[in-house]
Every structure is written in C-alpha cells, then in structure tokens.
Amino acid sequence: MTIRVIVADDQALVRSGFSMLLASADDINVVAEASNGQEAVDLARRHLPDVVLMDIRMPVMDGLEATREIAATSATSSVRVLMLTTFELDEYVYGALRAGASGFLLKDTRPHELLDAVRVIAAGEALLSPSVTRTLIAEFVRSPESRRPTPKALDSLTDRERDVLALVADGLSNAEIAERIVVSIGTVKTHVSRLLMKLHARDRAQLVVIAYQTGFTR
C-alpha cells in the first residue's frame, strides 16, 4: 500500500527537500505541501492523508494548534501527525503530545530514519526520537498541568497489561518488551491493542502521556 503524506513547513527549501526525499520511496506519495498550519489542516481535510509531516513553528497557525485541530476533528481523526523539531528541548513538543501527535523527530534525522518513521506512524504505531524521549518525558511530567486524576480505566488493567504499559512508557519497542517479559511479539501487540482500547488512546504516544499524567509511571 502507498502511504499518502502531506508535508507542512514554512521554509520552501526545507519543505521541498522533505518532499523530494519522501517521493523517492516507492511506497510513499506526497499528495500536498503546506506552508503554514492552517493550510495543513485544510489540506488534511481535503486529502485525508495517512501522515502529516508537521513543522512546529509556522505562521498563521503553528504546528501545535494544527495538530490539535486534526486530531480533534472526526473527519481527520485517523490522520497521524509526525512532528519535526529543531531542538531537543522545544517547549512546544510537550504540548504536542497532549494535542495528539503520534511521533517526534529532530530535523537533523538521517534520511532513511525519516522514511522509516513515516512508515511506523502510518502503520498506527508511535515514534519518539531516541534523543528526545527521555528528556521529553522528564520535562513533561514536571509541568503542573500534566497531572490529572487517575482514570478509572486503569483499574480494569490486568497485571500483565500494567507491566506492558510501564515498559511502553519507558520507551521500549514491542520487540524489547517481548524480550523483557519473555513472550512473543504477537502477544505484546495484543496487550498494546487492549491498552489502547481500554484507555481510549490513539496510539503509543498517548499511552505514554496517560501513564505519566496519572502518576502510573514516574
């Protein structure tokens, strides 16, 4: 299947560069380009892509607000957003997690890593750049607004599901979780699917948010 992508960045050369890179892959098709967040939202509604590659800092509407609108609108709720940031400690990254972004990458990511990231996001997984993940989580949980009461849904989790949620929140992949708790990758995928359903989360990124918001993981 071909992955349909929209590239949103206010810098024409950067936008063009990302588009050319993505178009070079046989399984990826760039359906549109946006120069600001509002255009990204409008184009997402028009084309319903699999993934929007979204810059954070843009005029008219920034990537954070654009992500929030895309995630909150029923017509585009299935569209995944992969955020691009220049700095590991970008203050907008923490808000983007809450807004519904499915992944984050630094702009200096290697070309093949960007292509792989788009494929991961399109497949319904979540991706946090290894260089961002730990700092992102640490800063996110320090924010007073990140604290919320523990949702009752956590009470319905089995002991094994709690184990898997803790490892997801720690940034481990399915393969790493399978090795840690000595089960098959298929079993881990089943546990993750049940977590997504029980906790009403879009993807793994939101599972991480829930784990830290509720105090389940510290």
Automatic annotation (TrEMBL):
Residues with PTM 4-aspartylphosphate: 55
Transmembrane segments: none
A Pfam family this chain is assigned to: GerE
Single annotated GO MF: DNA binding
Domain annotation Response regulatory: ranges: 4-122
GO biological process: phosphorelay signal transduction system; regulation of DNA-templated transcription
The HTH luxR-type domain, residue ranges: 150-215
PROSITE patterns referenced in this protein's UniProt entry, alphabetically: HTH_LUXR_1, HTH_LUXR_2, RESPONSE_REGULATORY
Swiss-Prot/TrEMBL keywords: DNA-binding, Phosphoprotein, Transcription, Transcription regulation
Entry superkingdom: Bacteria
Statement: the UniProt record of this protein carries the keyword Transcription: yes
Protein name as annotated: Response regulator transcription factor
Species name: Lolliginicoccus lacisalsi
Upper classification of the organism: Bacteria, Bacillati, Actinomycetota, Actinomycetes, Mycobacteriales
